[in-house]
Design goal:
The complex is a heterotrimer of chains A (472), B (298) and C (297).
Chain A: H1 6-38, E1 46-50, E2 53-62, H2 71-88, E3 93-101, H3 106-115, E4 122-126, H4 130-135, E5 163-164, E6 167-168, E7 171-172, E8 178-183, H5 184-189, H6 194-205, H7 211-223, E9 229-232, H8 241-246, E10 252-253, E11 258-261, H9 263-278, H10 291-299, E12 303-309, H11 312-318, H12 330-336, E13 337-340, E14 353-354, E15 358-362, H13 369-379, H14 382-392, H15 399-404, H16 409-414, E16 421-422, H17 430-445, H18 451-466, E17 470-471
Helix pairs in contact in A: 2-13, 2-14, 9-18, 17-18
Chain B: H1 2-38, H2 54-61, H3 65-97, H4 101-116, H5 119-129, H6 137-146, H7 153-156, H8 158-183, H9 187-195, H10 200-211, H11 213-229, H12 232-237, H13 249-259, H14 263-271, H15 273-286, H16 290-296
Helix pairs in contact in B: 1-14, 2-14, 3-4, 3-8, 3-11, 4-8, 8-11, 11-15, 13-14
Chain C: H1 2-14, H2 16-55, E1 60-61, E2 65-66, E3 82-84, E4 87-89, H3 92-123, H4 129-141, H5 144-157, H6 164-188, H7 192-200, H8 205-234, H9 237-242, H10 251-260, H11 267-292
Antiparallel strand pairs in C: 1-2, 3-4
């Protein structure tokens, strides 16, 4: 038969060995494989007993520690601290934290793992998810946390972030502010004095420097070819909420628990953004701009005003965005970059910042609810807050910790911003609403729709996805 | 004798178990579940709340649906055309026109590469080629050759680039099937045709194309259905964007279900593909005689 | 034959110039074909060569042209963790293991199932066999996405969410229809008399299957094994939805998250990882491409 030519024999040998290898391996896999894959320490807390001491392994889902979050590191350290306390109390439990790092699809992960009984014991997630997490029965209620000493001096209003339906469903990890960086050397070239530059943040706070003023300055810089772009903004759905809020858009009716479509102000918002695009300050592809490119533009001065978050400062120091210097240090940042709140849309108006605090939530099905809660109290101690805040440029959420973090000049200079914090709703439909919010803006920026058309689209899409809404 | 027959049929039945399980048990369970979910308002909280035909009605008035339908038609037709025509060209040039058969098989080997590399790698390569930054392959080339400024290709031509990607990856299968069909054509036909003084063009039109009619028909139907329901390559390359300009029906269903976490609505959207599938299969059976192909081709 | 030769001889004597022209005209399709294929294939090959070059280069000129040779990008092969721009990812060999398990598992289950079904559907003449085969078209066309939501409930019901076994079964069953179809075509071409001869020898059906059929359908087995392996190896969507554990990350997941997170500075590492991920496919493919070319539908 033809079969016996050299190549085929080789092939047959390879495949046969492969097949035998698998078939032998396969039998073993169903028993042993299952254990290692779905096994004991994946998902739910598991316990190993040694003598009288039982080590409880907690699965924690969260962000990758690339400059953005030290939550995982803090939890591990807090677990050690708690273990010392447990030892003193003669408790038989000891804790161990197993991180699972899921950057993009955390929501999906929580849903599917919970539904299959393998939910992480603790998850680190944006507060706006609280609504659906509570409504879907995924997370544990923790009303008693309010009485804990560590939270006594929590910033006012921040319990709201973790409250849904009058109950508390998590604890805050940090807070931050979204604002606008500006490149100081360019302002000097435009004839600004050092004093004028230093006074700019105050002018924004007092409502003397508006979006229009910012656009005018940016226009000068673009016209004089100092920069490629006058203004870039950050593009996440919770980031772009700033433009809506800044124009007085009401998003949510707290009493009716319904989303609001505030047509007049939405159109105003879109007109403002369109104006920025039309005058050549904001690229029409802004919403698909990569984050890295945006941050590079501010550090290298190819854009004059760039929206971002205070945590960006940590990235400038770590991610090597500067074309010549690579990483820049605090002094360089101090000298070259200024920070203002998003200027108000109207003269005399109040500036705003969007706040999207990260929170810890605990699975409803965790086997050790008490230990989990104790760990969350432990990790909220000022020193851990400070560790996360100073390393990743976030703002601690209690007074004590804010005192500790004062050593960072940058954090000091921006901490006033939390006075202007605004929040997006944490209604269960927020994941759907935030997509509409971002997409409507994108439609305007790319020129696909006129401001009026985009507002119409938004209304239609909201009615479609959110059911009953209040139209204003 | 009877016993032997029974035993034999029993043996046959046993061998069919996995296949049968797939075609009927698993498929039916899947279909029933999907249809049920399509009638619920299931979202991130995963509650089974039946809400009648709300989802279906919603899909019909969804402001995006027009664009998505158009995209789907363009994507499926153009990709199919690309796949089959390009696969045909490779098959015919490498098996028939090229005198050196080894050279021909080398080219076929090269054109199988896109089919062999994993989808994620393929998408990564294409992202890299069409990247909007100055480091993108195409942008660097254009810059070196013409000194042109970087272009955001994927923002400008999202659907077209997706068609190219799906076409290039999919032409491998057409090529394999069409070239093995080409090779099974009796060589004497070509001889006779040439002796009769037939031009190359008429050989192609009157001999090769009729011979490849069945495999081409098969490819069009099989791959057409696959394209209608597939979304992975678009998901990885442009994720439907920008502004839904490369969003197709199947991808939209995926997005609604797995990124908006609106499982009920996502299921309902995906079910709209089914009637199209039925129509295509029915036409294939009746008009093109697809059943003849399936039975007679062997 | 004799006649043809005579005819050609006659022609060439009578019209020597036309003959030369004729020869050029005759080889024109050959030349054009080679030209067309070269022009289109070269960029394709270059692209693959390029990423290999980049993966082995220390520096890039203008972010795209490789400069110096370095193994730095490949260090994830011997270091405990994959590190990119300070972010720590799990060990690549673990991911390699998970990916390989899915790929091999998928191809074993899928090939076994479709071999058995293809054999019966081709040989056993029983009522409904045609319909059974034709129904593959319907399952093939059922929107994959819809399957995903239901698949979660089915996997959950049998406790296979977050297991490699679950992914293997989903993948294998998804591909079984098409594989059965392909392999049935090969069974159909085995001459019936071979089986008779074998049954006269007194071989059991199983022996007949191994001795008579398997050698004949071997190219088909190779082809469907390869396709099953590739589909398991390259799977991204199912894996990203149904595997939660960092320990069962696959290469497709890690590569996707790396290129989504845009590490411009570490381009070389991403390229090296892509090459590493592609390599098993390429090796298998070069071993099996001859069989692949024999595939029919």
């Amino acid at each position: 038969m033809k079969l016996l030519n050299g190549n085929k024999v080789k092939l047959a040998v390879v495949l046969l060995t492969a097949v035998t290898a698998i078939s032998t391996g396969c039998g073993a896999k169903t028993t042993e494989g299952n254990k290692s894959v779905a096994g004991d320490n994946a998902g739910q807390a598991s316990a190993q007993t040694a003598g009288n001491v039982e080590t409880v392994e907690l699965t924690v889902a969260g962000r990758r520690p690339v400059g953005d979050s030290y939550g995982m590191e803090n939890l591990a350290k807090a677990a050690e601290k708690l273990n010392q306390k447990l030892e003193k109390e003669d408790s038989k439990y000891r804790l161990k934290v197993n991180p699972v790092l899921k950057p993009d699809d955390l929501n999906q992960y929580i849903i599917f793992s919970s539904k299959s009984g393998k939910a992480p014991d603790i998850a680190e997630i944006g507060y706006s998810n609280i609504g659906w997490l509570a409504e879907g029965n995924y997370v544990m209620q923790m009303d008693d946390m309010k009485n804990q000493d560590v939270f006594k001096n929590l910033m006012p209003g921040y319990w709201n972030a973790v409250t849904w339906d009058k109950h508390i469903w998590g604890v805050i990890q940090d807070t931050e502010a979204r604002m606008v960086f500006f490149y100081k050397p360019h302002l000097k070239k435009l004839g600004w004095t050092d004093e004028q530059i230093a006074a700019l943040p105050k002018k924004v706070e007092n409502g003397e420097f508006t979006m229009q003023d910012m656009a005018d300055v940016a226009k000068q810089a673009v016209d004089q070819k100092l920069v490629k772009h006058g203004f870039l903004h950050n593009t996440g759905p919770r980031d772009v909420a700033a433009f809506y809020v800044n124009n007085g858009v009401q998003m949510y009716d707290e009493d009716k628990k319904q989303y609001v479509f505030d047509k007049a102000n939405v159109v105003e918002t879109f007109k403002e953004v369109k104006q920025l695009v039309d005058s050549g300050l904001l690229p029409d592809s802004m919403m698909t701009y990569s984050e890295k490119d945006r941050l590079k533009e501010i550090v290298n001065g190819t854009a004059l005003f760039v929206g971002g978050g205070i945590w960006e400062e940590a990235r400038f120091k770590q991610n090597g965005y500067h074309n010549e210097l690579g990483n820049v240090n605090s002094e360089w940042i101090q000298q070259n970059l200024g920070v203002i709140l998003l200027p108000p849309s109207k003269k005399g108006g109040k500036p705003i910042t969007m706040s999207n605090p990260y929170v810890y939530v605990a699975s409803k099905t965790t086997k050790h609810p008490e230990l989990v809660k104790r760990l969350l109290v432990e990790v909220s101690a000022p020193e851990y807050q400070k560790n996360h805040a100073t390393q990743s440029s976030h703002i601690p959420f209690t007074k004590e910790a804010q005192e500790l973090a004062k050593e960072s000049a940058f954090l000091n200079s921006v901490s006033y911003m939390t006075n202007y914090s605004k929040f997006v709703p944490n209604h269960p439909d927020e994941p759907k609403y935030e997509k509409i919010r971002a997409e409507a803006l994108k439609n305007v920026e790319t020129g696909t729709m006129t401001p009026e058309k985009a507002a119409e689209w938004m209304e239609q899409q909201m009615k479609l996805d959110l059911g009953s809404i209040v139209v204003k | 004798m009877v016993w032997r027959k029974v035993k034999e049929q029993g043996f046959n039945a046993m061998l069919l178990v996995p296949f049968f399980f797939n075609q009927y048990v698993l498929f039916l369970a899947t279909a029933i579940l999907v249809i049920l979910i399509a009638f619920t308002s299931m979202d991130s909280s995963m509650h089974w709340k039946f809400n009648g035909i709300v989802n279906f009605r919603k899909a019909l008035i969804d402001p995006k649906i027009g664009l998505i339908m158009l995209n789907t038609i363009i994507f499926v037709c153009m990709t199919l055309l690309f796949k089959v025509v390009w696969g045909f060209i490779i098959a015919v040039t490498t098996t028939y026109y090229m005198e050196n058969k080894t050279v021909g098989s080398w080219f076929r080997t090269i054109w199988l590469l896109p089919r062999v590399s994993p989808g994620v790698v393929e998408a990564m390569l294409w992202t890299w080629i069409f990247s909007s930054s100055e480091y993108g392959v195409l942008n660097s080339l254009m810059h070196t050759l013409y000194g042109s400024a970087p272009v955001a290709w994927l923002d400008k031509y999202p659907l077209l680039i997706n068609i190219l990607l799906a076409g290039v990856m999919g032409s491998s299968l057409s090529m394999v099937i069409l070239s093995s069909a080409m090779q099974s054509i009796n060589k004497s036909y070509f001889y006779v045709a040439k002796v009769d003084g037939a031009s190359e063009w008429s050989i192609l039109r009157n001999l090769i194309v009729p011979f490849l009619r069945w495999p081409i028909m098969f490819l069009v139907i099989w791959q057409g259905l696959a394209l209608l329901t597939s979304y992975e390559s678009i998901l990885l390359l442009t994720d439907g964007g920008p502004n839904s300009r490369s969003e197709t029906w199947a991808l939209y269903a995926f997005h609604k279900a797995f990124s908006s976490l609106d499982f009920g609505y996502g299921s309902a959207v995906s079910l709209f593909i089914l009637p199209i599938v039925f129509v295509v299969i029915f036409l294939a059976y009746r008009v093109f005689g697809f059943h003849k192909l399936m039975n007679a081709a062997k | 034959m004799e006649m043809i030769k005579q005819m050609q001889a006659g022609r060439s004597q009578a019209y020597p110039r036309q003959r030369r022209l004729g020869r050029i005209k005759q080889s024109l399709p050959n030349i054009l074909s080679i030209a067309l294929m070269t022009v289109t294939s070269v960029p394709l090959v270059l692209l693959y060569v390029w990423i290999v070059l980049i993966s082995f280069s220390g520096e890039l000129i203008g972010g795209i042209f490789p400069k110096s040779f370095s193994l730095q990008n490949w260090s994830f092969l011997w270091s405990p963790n994959l590190v990119m721009d300070g972010a720590v990812y799990p060990n690549v060999w673990n991911m390699f293991g998970s990916t390989l398990t899915i790929a091999l598992g998928t191809s074993v289950v899928e090939v076994a199932g479709s071999l058995m079904a293809g054999y019966v559907l081709s040989r056993g003449n029983f009522p409904g066999s045609k319909f059974l085969l034709q129904s593959t078209l319907l399952t093939h066309a059922f929107p994959a996405i819809t399957g995903m939501i239901a698949a979660f409930y089915i996997l959950n019901a049998v406790g296979l969410v977050n297991t490699l076994t679950g992914i293997i079964l989903l993948k294998a069953f998804a591909g079984m229809g098409m594989s059965t179809w392909i392999i049935k075509g090969f069974f159909d071409e085995v001459p019936k008399h071979l089986e008779w001869a074998s049954s006269v020898d007194g071989s059991s059906r199983f022996q007949t299957f191994i001795q008579v059929y398997l050698p004949n359908v071997w190219p088909g087995v190779v082809a469907i094994s390869l396709f099953a392996f590739l589909s398991g190896w390259g799977e991204y969507v199912m894996v990203s939805v149904f595997l939660f554990d960092d320990r069962t990350n696959t290469l497709s997941m890690i590569l996707h998250s790396l290129f989504v997170e845009e590490f411009h500075g570490s381009y070389g590492i991403v390229m090296a990882l892509a090459v590493f991920y592609m390599l098993p496919c390429l090796i298998l493919y070069f071993f099996s491409q001859q069989a692949l070319m024999k595939m029919k539908m």
